[in-house]
């Protein structure tokens, strides 16, 4: 989730439990604790572009790491501010821990994948019930957290927590409805996929991307929920087959191992990018939910497959009218 939402939710939980004279401290510690796990993005390597994919949302997001991560943040706050102002380390640690505890669970509600049970499991949890950025979730929460601080009362923060839980619950219901629409669409095509997944499009719970796998291909469509759901038929792309798509790739080579690392990160939603040679894309994400145009991919090099890691490519390309088309789909209008 975006850092603003993480910090605000991190503040809401300790504020909802704090006494009035500790409301400011609860807010500060909660914000710090709520945002701190994402410092793992600093774990990078100039020689290995995929290293950050392995460590982002890994140990700092594990549930078992919460007491440790909270202690590190609390020590930093106490050392820089707490001793001089006279704050109790115990209060700092408790409030920071409450904020820290909200982070991974909120991240798991997105589609990216979070290692909640590291080091006991490398499963990436992605509950797909909220977009990574959603102003309808965040803005009311910010207002309530600020009101709680200004008024020095718990109830606005408590209301903020209920708002988040209610919104995420609505996301679960919407996701399940979108998945059912995806199954109906597959059935109309004569397909019987083992799994249909639905993922929210950018910043809303109305428009969803549906993905399923059938006969060696991914089928990507979009559905706008409502009393009469609107389906936006999408695209198909063959599932990645290394022997077919990259016959030159040597098994066990450095870049072949990188492909498997990227496969784990993408939860096996991989395909050869039809637009770029020697590029493998993550099919889960695109600017328009009924299109196959990955936001990130890896670029292989047949001339350096055992001497150089793959390149990690982030695509921010958007054609003319992309956001207008997205808004049209969110409104449920024909394209």
TrEMBL record:
The keyword Transmembrane applies. It comes from the Bacteria. The keyword Hydrolase applies. GO terms for molecular function: hydrolase activity. The chain crosses the membrane at residues 63-81, 93-118, 130-148, 155-174. Keywords: Hydrolase, Membrane, Transmembrane, Transmembrane helix. This is Metal-dependent hydrolase. It comes from Congregibacter brevis.
């Amino acid at each position: 989730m975006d850092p603003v939402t993480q910090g605000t939710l991190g503040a809401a939980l300790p504020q909802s439990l704090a006494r009035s004279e500790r409301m400011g401290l609860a807010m500060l510690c909660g914000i710090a604790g709520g945002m701190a796990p994402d410092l793992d993005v600093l774990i990078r390597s100039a020689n290995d572009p995929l290293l950050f994919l392995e460590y982002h949302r890994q140990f700092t997001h594990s549930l078992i790491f919460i007491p440790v991560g909270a202690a590190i943040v609390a020590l930093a706050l106490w050392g820089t501010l707490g001793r001089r102002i006279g704050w109790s380390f115990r209060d700092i640690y408790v409030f920071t821990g409450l904020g820290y505890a909200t982070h991974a669970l909120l991240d798991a509600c997105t589609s990216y994948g979070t290692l909640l049970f590291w080091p006991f499991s490398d499963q990436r949890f992605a509950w797909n019930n909220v977009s990574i950025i959603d102003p309808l979730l965040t803005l009311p929460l910010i207002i309530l957290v600020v009101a709680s601080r200004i008024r020095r009362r718990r109830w606005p923060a408590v209301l903020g927590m209920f708002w988040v839980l209610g919104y995420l619950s609505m996301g679960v219901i919407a996701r399940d409805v979108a998945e059912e629409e995806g199954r109906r669409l597959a059935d109309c095509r004569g397909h019987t996929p083992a799994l249909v997944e639905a993922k929210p499009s950018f910043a809303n719970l109305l428009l969803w991307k549906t993905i399923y796998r059938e006969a060696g291909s991914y089928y990507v469509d979009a559905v706008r929920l409502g009393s009469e759901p609107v389906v936006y038929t999408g695209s198909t792309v063959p599932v990645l087959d290394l022997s077919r798509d990259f016959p030159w790739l040597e098994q066990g080579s450095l870049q072949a191992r990188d492909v498997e690392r990227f496969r784990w990160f993408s939860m096996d939603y991989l395909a050869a990018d039809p637009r770029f040679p020697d590029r493998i894309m993550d099919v889960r994400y695109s600017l328009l939910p009924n299109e196959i145009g990955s936001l990130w991919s890896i670029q292989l090099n047949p001339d350096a497959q055992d001497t150089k890691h793959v390149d990690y490519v982030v695509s921010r390309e958007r054609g003319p009218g992309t956001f207008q088309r997205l808004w049209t789909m969110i409104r449920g209008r024909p394209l």
